[in-house]
Amino acid sequence: MNANIKIWGLGIGPGDPDLITVKALKILQAADVIAYPAPADGESLVRSIAAPHMSGTQEEIVIATPMVVERHPAQDVYDKAASEIAAAVDAGKSVAVLCEGDPFFYGSFMYLFARLSENYAVQVVPGVSSLAACSAELALPLAARNDVVTVIPGPLDEETLEQQLMATNVAAIIKVGRHLGKIKRVLEKIGATDNAHYIERATMKNQKIVPLSDLNGDSAPYFSMIIVRRSGEILEL
Length: 237
Ligand SMILES: C[S@@+](CC[C@H](N)C(=O)[O-])C[C@H]1O[C@@H](n2cnc3c(N)ncnc32)[C@H](O)[C@@H]1O
Description:
By secondary structure, this protein is an alpha/beta fold. It is 30% helix and 22% strand.
């Protein structure tokens, strides 16, 4: 471990506590302080993933994150968390910030990184991302040879979703949540429903896999993804 680094963005993987890297595990156990996001009124998912590896004696910083769409309240949350982390480091402590999956793959750690990296040495430790976990659990190889894979956020509008899907061979649609109905409509319109695979809470104890054509309703849990293989060399293996 580099002794100069005092802040880590620690990728702890997609849910199964065993899917943490050896490097992240060593840092998790050695850090003086463990920081993690948690909903304002509930248990922190990232902490529960890391918990089997934690001694329980480390200091903890809870980053209480409201599930809001607006930017500004969230910015205040990250300002406050960054100053708490900075204060711990100024007091001589090291801080590991727990990040679900990989910190720089749509991870909120980047907001802390933007605030802290100018004045402190911050190291990101990559983690197993949900993209890798979902592909593995679905037993669905993602891409071959020159296939293009696109990660598409579900909140995009219907027209953009369709354009992005039509422009790629393989798509991973993330942040499905309340956008499921819209996503199903677009996939049906482009004739891709039968090639779409839905997975929720990949590698967690309550993982669920359903062919999209069998999935009822217009909303899904936050931790869900749809992988669509429309075209390309991957279908010819
Ligand atoms: C804000 S992004 C964070 C991604 C995370 N940093 C990573 O490396 O996977 C959250 C989205 O990732 C996807 N996701 C994360 N973990 C997942 C899991 N265990 N199973 C299914 N989807 C997951 C979902 O689409 C979710 O809406």
